[in-house]
UniProtKB/TrEMBL annotation, chain A:
Keywords: DNA-binding, Transcription, Transcription regulation. This is GntR family transcriptional regulator. It comes from the Bacteria. It comes from Pedobacter frigiditerrae. InterPro entries: Tscrpt_reg_HTH_GntR, WH-like_DNA-bd_sf, WH_DNA-bd_sf. Gene3D superfamilies: 1.10.287.100, Winged helix-like DNA-binding domain superfamily/Winged helix DNA-binding domain (1.10.10.10). PROSITE patterns: HTH_GNTR. One of its GO terms (molecular function) is DNA binding. Pfam families: GntR (PF00392). Residues 7-75 form the HTH gntR-type domain.
UniProtKB/TrEMBL annotation, chain B:
PANTHER family: ABC TRANSPORTER ATP-BINDING PROTEIN ALBC-RELATED. Pfam families: ABC_tran. This is ABC transporter ATP-binding protein. The lineage of its organism: Bacteria, Pseudomonadati, Bacteroidota, Sphingobacteriia, Sphingobacteriales. The keyword RNA-binding does not apply.
UniProtKB/TrEMBL annotation, chain C:
It comes from Pedobacter frigiditerrae. This is Uncharacterized protein. Keywords: Membrane, Transmembrane, Transmembrane helix. It comes from the Bacteria. The keyword Membrane applies. The chain crosses the membrane at residues 24-45, 65-84, 105-126, 175-195, 200-219, 249-270.
């Protein structure tokens, strides 16, 4: 995993875990990599991973079973989407809007382009 | 775990390197020790290991005074110096002679660390490159299961794959009862590994704060223009890389190099933020 | 755990130091053996090649060889023992080995004073045994008449060619001489930790200067005390035997005290050694 420059590491790790859940690599009630395993894979401090896991626990994306480890929570999929959606709306959408405004891109054009993108990427 | 109180140290009596340096370090952290050349990073590490003696002040490492060089403390210290020496014997002979001094030495762990570092066990230490030798002493040091791990510029001399292996190994080496202190100039090698930053400057600790605390109080970002809220900035391609007080609870990634320069340049502005 | 001395840890330390120095040590033993054999061979080749060309005087080289070369050998071994502490990388590793300073010091004493002296005596003994046995086999008729004193009685022994370590060799025992090797090694061991470079030369120069001063003091004070005076207590002169004995014991006491002092300084230096 490549870390980007501008986002806190623990949030980037959170995004990484969320992606795994969204893509179905980790399913509901399955065990998530332990703090140590995750730290080793990503070459980061275990305390940072711990911070990520606490965040994800608060968002009900993973849950801690005492003595066994972290598991994907029951409503993880929904919660991940909520979490990512908030993040997207708060962080990335303003950038897109700014460019849409500056470059004078019409909503019609946006819609067509969006539809083609979905078609090409997800239903080829 | 480590308590330093009013440490005064100098290589000559008239010129003190540390003046009233005080600091506490606890278990379960990887401390990154930063500082300019000559700021005393290696010297502070040597003080912790009892390799040099302070003029005055007290030091408590795991309940011992390191200056006494007692075996009970020495077997809990793993010290990886920047320049080191290994005798011209095979690895297993070296381990056989030295591991016995460490009651918690873990032989299978040592073997697995060597495997991870791609070091052939039967090789003679004298025929190894600097980087390979460094990996051997790092592996040996970690396998002692010492509680205090002190590393002076550990990534110097490691090639690119070894640096990644090193980060993985250190990530797995941090346990709740261990304290790891790494001094480094190669900030980029380690910036995700460190959870607490210690910066030495002007005879004392200029900054000691966890990454969480730093990013809580400061925000690191690219800005187009500099205003009065900017504490320190450096020009970049798309404007400026700036350090600012974190008024809006923004999340940002700690830029160690920028922080380092900010501390050196704007100590007076940063001090009140962290105290 | 005992932080000052633990017999098991001491044993492990001896083993570890042997791994480090053993090879060089064995090589120097081999060189020493070569030198001794060369001297014997050079002095006796005529006796071996031509019949009836042996005279007991041919063996007179043994005393100076034993004393001078023995001095050189044990002093070189002693002055190299702590020499590596002058090099930072080696010193760090050694000082951090989890054994007490006292154990590290005792190991030094063992290698430099006991092992080196014993092995030198052994080398000299076997070389002498080999060469002299051969001579005795060749020259069965040569007899050596040696008067010596045993239990206050003068005895004359008639022997073949005498071995160097035979009690019939006709040398007067001079008690302090038995303690002198320990004194020499203690001085050079101190030199090896006192100086950072050129240990042998520097120690040798110091020894010369000190013995020069010592001699000067003795001579000058003797002159000052006895100049222009004559001895009137003629009685005492007849108690020659008695006073010689006391004199020897005083010499022994002096040498033992000095050795103990030098060893203590070495221990303190080792304790205070900084890197």
């Amino acid at each position: 995993m490549e870390f980007r420059d501008n986002k806190a590491i623990y949030l980037q790790i959170a995004a990484y875990v969320c992606e795994h859940i969204l893509l179905g690599k980790w399913k509901v009630d399955e065990k998530v990599s332990s703090v140590r395993e995750m730290a080793v894979t990503l070459e980061v401090n275990p305390n940072t991973v711990m911070r990520t896991y606490e965040l994800l626990q608060n968002k009900n994306i993973i849950s801690n079973k005492r003595g066994i480890g972290f598991f994907v929570a029951e409503d993880a999929l929904k919660n991940v989407k909520d979490y990512l959606k908030t993040q997207f709306i708060e962080e990335e959408l303003p950038v897109v809007f700014r460019n849409v405004y500056l470059l004078n891109i019409g909503f019609d054009e946006l819609e067509t382009r969006y539809n083609t993108f979905v078609k090409e990427t997800f239903n080829p | 775990m480590i308590k330093i109180n009013n440490l005064n140290f100098g290589y000559s009596k008239h010129q003190l390197l540390f003046k009233n340096l005080s600091m506490q370090l606890s278990n379960g952290h990887i401390y990154g020790l930063l500082g300019k050349n000559g700021a005393g990073k290696s010297t502070l590490l040597k003080n912790l290991a009892g390799l040099v003696y302070a003029e005055s002040g007290s030091m408590d490492v795991l309940g011992y005074n390191p200056a006494k060089r007692q075996p009970a403390l020495l077997e809990q210290i793993c010290f990886i110096p920047e320049e080191f020496y290994l005798p011209s014997v095979k690895i297993d002979a070296y381990v056989k002679a030295n591991a016995v001094f460490y009651p918690n030495f873990d032989h299978p762990y040592f073997t697995s660390l060597l495997a991870e570092f791609d070091i052939p066990v039967g090789q003679k230490l004298i025929n190894m490159s600097y980087g390979q030798k460094k990996k051997v002493i790092i592996a040996f040091g970690l396998a002692t299961n010492a509680k205090l791990i002190i590393m002076d510029e550990p990534t110097n001399g490691l090639d690119i794959p070894s640096k990644a292996q090193f980060r993985k190994i250190m990530a797995s080496a941090l346990t709740e009862d261990r304290c790891i202190i790494i001094s480094t100039h190669q900030v980029r090698d380690l910036d995700n590994l460190i959870d607490t930053v210690i910066m030495l400057d002007e005879n004392s600790v200029a900054l000691k704060a966890s990454v969480e605390e730093i990013t809580d109080k400061l925000v690191f970002k690219r800005v187009k223009e500099i205003d009065e809220t900017v504490i320190y900035s450096e020009p970049s391609l798309a404007g400026f890389n700036a350090v600012m007080p974190n008024f809006h609870k923004e999340d940002s990634k700690l830029d160690l190099e920028l922080l380092f320069n900010a501390v050196l340049a704007e100590k007076n502005k940063l001090k009140p933020i962290f105290n | 755990m005992n932080n000052t001395f633990n017999i098991q840890r001491f044993g492990l330390l001896l083993k570890r130091q042997w791994l480090e120095f053993g090879k060089i040590y064995l090589i120097s033993l081999l060189v020493a053996l070569g030198v001794i054999v060369a001297f014997y061979g050079f002095a006796l080749w005529k006796a071996f090649t031509y019949a009836d060309s042996f005279s007991p005087r041919d063996l007179n080289f043994r005393e100076p060889l034993f004393l001078i070369f023995g001095f050189i050998f044990i002093s070189i071994i002693a002055s190299s023992y702590f020499a590596h502490l002058g090099q930072k990388p080696k010193a760090i590793i050694d000082l951090l080995i989890p054994a007490s300073t006292f154990e590290k010091f005792l190991t030094g004493v063992f290698f430099t004073s006991i092992l080196s002296i014993v092995s030198f005596l052994f080398l000299f003994y076997i070389t002498d045994l080999a060469f002299v046995s051969k001579l005795r086999g060749m020259y069965t008729s040569v007899e050596q008449i040696t008067p010596y004193v045993h239990n206050g009685k003068e005895i004359t022994s008639i022997d073949h060619i005498a071995y160097f370590f035979s009690k019939y060799s006709g040398r007067d025992k001079f008690l302090p001489l038995y303690f002198f090797p320990f004194f020499v090694t203690s001085v050079f061991l101190l030199g090896s930790i006192f100086f950072n470079k050129f240990h042998y030369i520097k120690t040798a120069i110091c020894v010369m200067i000190f013995s020069g001063i010592w001699t000067a003091i003795v001579v000058k004070s003797g002159e000052w005390l006895f100049e222009g005076k004559i001895m009137i207590d003629q009685e005492n002169r007849n108690m020659n035997h008695m006073s010689q004995n006391t004199g020897e014991w005083l010499g022994v006491l002096l040498i033992v005290t000095l050795t103990a002092i030098f060893w203590s300084i070495t221990y303190v230096r080792l304790k205070e050694k900084e890197v």
